[in-house]
Amino acid sequence: MSTLTAIHIAASGLQAQQTAMEVAGHNIANVNTPGYHRQEVVLNAASRTPASLQESSANSPLGSGVEVSTIRRLQQQFLDRQQQRTASQVGYWDAMQTTLSQAERVLAPAADQGLSTQLDAFFAAWQQFADAPEEPVRRTQVVSSAVQLTATLNNNAAYLHRMDSELLSAEATRVQQLNDLATQLATLNGQIGKAGGAGIAANDLLDQRDQITRKMAGLAGVTVAMAADGTALVSLDGRLLVNGKTVHQVNLETGSGMPRLTWDDGAAAKITGGEIAGLETTHSTVLARFRTQYDAIAFALSSAVNSRHMSGVTSSGQPAGAFFTGATAGTLQVNADILADATNVAAGSTPNAPGDGAIARSIAGLANQPLIGTATVPQSAQVIVGQLGAAVRQAQTQADSHRAVQAQVMAQEQSVSGVSLDEELTNLLISQRAYDASARVLATADQMLQTLLQTLQ
Amino acid sequence: MRVTNYSMTQFIQEQIAKTNDRVARLQSEVATGQRIQHPSDDPEGAAQAAGYRSRLTAIDQYTQSATEAKGWLQLQESTLGEMGTALRQAHALGLQGNNPQSVEAREAVAGQIDAVRSHLLQLANTRQGSRYLFAGFRTTTPPFAESGGTVQYAGDTGVMTIALGDGQAMPLNISGAELCNMGGAADIFSSLSQLAQAVRTGDQTAIGTQLADLEDHSARVTAQRGQTGIRMTQAEMALSHLASSRQVLDDLLNGVEAADLSRTVVDLQAQQNVLQATSYVAMSLSRGGLLNWLQ
Prior knowledge:
Shape of chain A: rod-shaped
Strand order of the largest sheet of chain B: 1-2
Structural class of chain A: alpha+beta
Strand content of chain A: 5-15%
Order of helices and strands of chain A: HEEHHHHEEEEEEHEEHHHH
Strand content of chain B: 5-15%
Structural class of chain B: mainly alpha
Number of strands of chain B: 6
Largest sheet of chain A: 4 strands, antiparallel
Number of helices of chain A: 10
Oligomer: heterodimer
Radius of gyration of chain A: 38 Å
Number of helices of chain B: 7
Strand order of the largest sheet of chain A: 3-4-5-6
Distance between the termini of chain A: 22 Å
Shape of chain B: rod-shaped
């Protein structure tokens, strides 16, 4: 063994420890970076003799110091896949919860102000009117309670209509985000492939890749597969969205009729998970159901009240007209003639009989008639409250439970990939001591060389 | 398990957020006294509560109707009572005039009979508020009007009803036509004027006939009064039934909706303690760590 060899060994130690310190520094710098995976230096005892010394010590059992074999990224593949799955679920239920609990605040406000209460007040006003149809106050009470009722129905219908277009535009924005992310991922795939080809471990690019695929899963519930070279293959409903550097975009066509998702070649696309699907389901299934129910209430009211009302006579003995105009939740109105003059409300069917409240009584009795299937009108308003509450409740529970799973997976992932400052500081200390020691070896070898040179003088 | 700085702070953050959410929820429960703030807090309960509230509105309505009906029936009952008394008085006067007397004495009796007749006419035009009791549906115009010595009925035979419950309607009024036998062989008023006439002329046969008619009228009024009494009882029974239904529904609604205040306050205190403890732990997190010990 030569003194020169000792110098080489010491130098390799210095280099390796320095790399270890750099990696620790990188880790510490990224302690708060989302999606960062801890990196670790893998050191190897160098068994092969460097080429320059090959001749002199070809058969030596001695190693020649240390080498950095790789800088490892600590990651567990199956946790990543779980992250994508939960991101998709959380995205779906979160989107639903946000929109539905907003709808709940509007459609089912404080317990005594909703549609159900308005209906009760409407029928009670008719009942009171029937008791004493001569009283002008009771007549106007019928009209004003009906105006409040139609206003509530109109507002609810208008709100649902507005939600429709808001949800649609939110969906369009998300689809655009999905396409943007797909393009970013394709670029990243290119860089990762290139780095791999050059033999460089592209750890930080892989972090970015995982962040992007997770976001895509949260948006659209995509499936992600990793190729051997570290590039990501993203598919949606069995078709590839990102394949290496190639991107197939998805578009939301909102032109005419029902909005639909298509691939860039025109085929229909289907998104079944993530935020986009959550918005879509809220819009086309849940809220649509409530719109139908409000329309059913409006139709039942207008047809049943009108047919009874029109068999009566006004205060002046003329045949009464329709009480309501319009037959959907959005269009139901109190007849303009009645709004203009409350004496056009019919109380009874006998002309010149101000005490006759038979028609009013039979309209009041509609509160207990099964006008919508087997349900009365007030009952179906109560059912809406229950169903709306249940839908919000389900979305809340699901979102909460998937968030809990997400937190769990995140904690597991952190335990593998997260940065612990204590640990990094310890590593830093160890590297520093090893660096000091290698420097001491170098100094000693240098002294030995000096001693040798002095002897030869 | 390997614990990292990020997972520690993340965990504390989540816990604080969760506890804050619970505290806010409990606070609004205490503030409003309601267990259900939004239907999603208890969807089934919220739908039930809406149903109970709907029933309560209906019950309040029926209670109001029944109370009004009671007022009407009370007045009707006392009016009919007075009419009965007046008819009996006329009958007695008829008997008194049925003896051979001086012209002056007969005239005095006949005058009293006329006074009873006009009292009866007044009673027949009794109003409750602005509504005439015995006018059928034509409640806004006086049903009985005298012109040229005869009384005409201007009302109709409509029977108003009052709802005391779902599909439970009770007839309220008595039409004046029926009560005073208007359009019959002899109405109350013509019987009385004929009686007065017979007394004046001393026509004993006619007096006898009219007295018999008066007995019929009297019987009719008494029968109607009895009927009115029955309806009053009906309204009262309905009122007490409505009151007890209201009680039951109130209890049900409270059971579904009302917050158990003592329990909620204890829960709130517990959650606030948790929040305090968590904040303390969060504070100590930043003090720990190797970094503070390395120079």
